[in-house]
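To whoever picks this up:

The nightly regression suite flagged L,D-transpeptidase catalytic domain as changed. Nothing in the input moved, so I suspect the structure step. Input below, exactly as stored in the fixture:
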Amino acid sequence: MPTIEHIDPRLTRRGVIAAAAASAGAIGLAACASDPDNPSNDRSGATSSPTSTESPSVTITSAHGTDAVLPDDTLTVTVTNGTAISVKATGPDGDAYTGSLDGDTWTPDRTFWPETEYTVSVQVMNLQNQETTLTQQITTAYVDTLVYEPVYAYDDLGVAMPVYIQFSDTIDEAEHRAAIEKQARVTVTPEQPGSWGWVENRILMWRPKEYWTPGTTVDVHLAFAGVKVSDWQYLADDTDYSISIAGSKVELVCDLQTQQMEVYQDGSLLRTCPVSTGKIGHETYTGTKVIMQKYDTFTMDSSTYGVPAESADGYKLEVPNCQRITWSGEFLHSASWSVGSQGVTATSHGCTNLSPDDAAWLMTVTHIGDPVVYNGTTAGGTQLAFEPGDGIGCWTFDWQSWQKQSAVA
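Regenerated output under the current build:
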């Protein structure tokens, strides 16, 4: 702190005049009236009152004190003997949060992590117009948290696989979904237009306007720690990850009327596969689905959707070369028992039956994330639309409709 020289007022001209005035009374005060023609009355060199040298101090608190700060609290910053210029909060990992200061209220640009100690640094201008930095510790509270998981955080994905984040419960309030979206960021290389959108208020996806350009990489940053998701729950942590898209575009197009599936790669037809899809009463859903899982073998069990395996319409068997496209149980898979019906009649319980050769070949061509488009209606059957929550349903929306699924649209 610089030293301020204090001048004794008794030794100044002003001090002498003040002393004389005190002894002379009213007459003396009149005699001291300024003579405009006397240059000795010029007071331009008079000494001003000294500035206080007291050091500044800061007190930081929140609506919940300093030891149980909620993740979405603002901070109250009170400075004595100075003025706060800026504030930042630094966590144990060294990451600094900036924010906006309005009067004595500081609002961070993002929420705090739960159960974390922060060093709050306040840049202060003291009474001598010098800047200094003051600090104080705060600790955030233990809070109940909701789990989320980035799904399909893989490389070599198909061109229809969105950035896909699933929450363990629905996020019912639009303002909470919007708060989550605002803390989610993607960096797409090469750049492509896209949008966040919600499905069933529990799945957050970012998809491009059209299918990804083959070879795309996507870096995802989720600054979710401390984001409020209900009146009493928060998200617990941040996540950074990347996905990459395969170097070729593979698309499957199935016609339910003709019972034929065409397989394209980069726009060229590779093969037309005869299929047998869902029979009347078990119609295969129409719309754009996405391959979600691939299995060398999978146990097909009708009891998983309410039909006992031992019943006349039931089954339980090990099936080779299976690719899941809905959560309700639709697969592309080998079906040696229906080869005679493939390309002719719909006979399955909703799956897309292929010959053993075609099913094995298809496993070598496709990626998790490839689109599978179903058009038309099974002969004599009912057209049933694929529901967005029954799989990766972002492509059931046209572009304008998908953008409206965003909570910040």
